[in-house]
Amino acid sequence: MNDVWNGVLILMRTASFIAAFPPWAGRSLPQTVKVGLAIALTVFWTLQPGEGPLPAAPEMLAGIAIVCVREVMLGVVMAQVIGLVLIPPRIAGSYVAQEMGLTFAALTSPMDQHPSDPIAQIFDAIALCLFFVLDAHHFVFRILDVSWRTTPVGSGWPTPMWARCAMASAGAVEVGLMIAASVAVLLLIVTVWMALATRMAPQMHLFAWGSAIRIIVGLGALIAYLPDLLLACARSLLSRQAEFLVR
């Protein structure tokens, strides 16, 4: 009976993790693939020998529901926190698109159902490609595997999880701005130049030619700094992985 209860709890955490992890969330991945992956991982981890005794199922129905909800919440929180490794490139793309004046073109993000802009979509695609090229998906499964030993199923809520969430969320914005720094500085110079030109020649209509210049300069900067942007995204992904492994 304890073996069955242990498998149910593992399935709860694994299924909620897969359902909430950004690359697999939404409708981009078929539901049958998610269910098959969750069941396959659950069978694999259930058959692994544990270090301690298996958890016993509570006698009351309310206790069973509380333990199941706790495992689901833990899987969702882990998925969202680890998914922050993909957020800095999106922040960089959104900031560059805002400086270029492309925020009016709201499209659907390829990784979730939230509105996005064209440049952020390009950075999302780059981050997703680097996610698999750098074997970050193996890192995700490694973190999930380590969670069975650090926080066994049926145990209490880990206290350091909240500090990890706060530090990971605060660092994502800073890293994203650092990725977009080279392009953002150039666009800032163009904006200052246009403001000075409008001040010196008020008859020039800024809205008539300013947007075109910002878009042309922004696209040229993205092409010129593409190797540096790819390297910055890769460093961001690897540094975020090292941060989770060290702490």
From TrEMBL:
Keywords: Cell membrane, Cell projection, Cilium, Flagellum, Membrane, Transmembrane, Transmembrane helix. Its main location: membrane. It is a multi-pass membrane protein. Belongs to the FliR/MopE/SpaR family. Signal peptide: none annotated. The keyword Cell membrane applies. Pfam families: Bac_export_1 (PF01311). One of its GO terms (cellular component) is plasma membrane. It is found in: Cell membrane. One of its GO terms (biological process) is protein targeting. The chain crosses the membrane at residues 60-87, 122-141, 161-194, 206-226. It comes from the Bacteria. This is Flagellar biosynthesis protein FliR. It comes from Caulifigura coniformis.
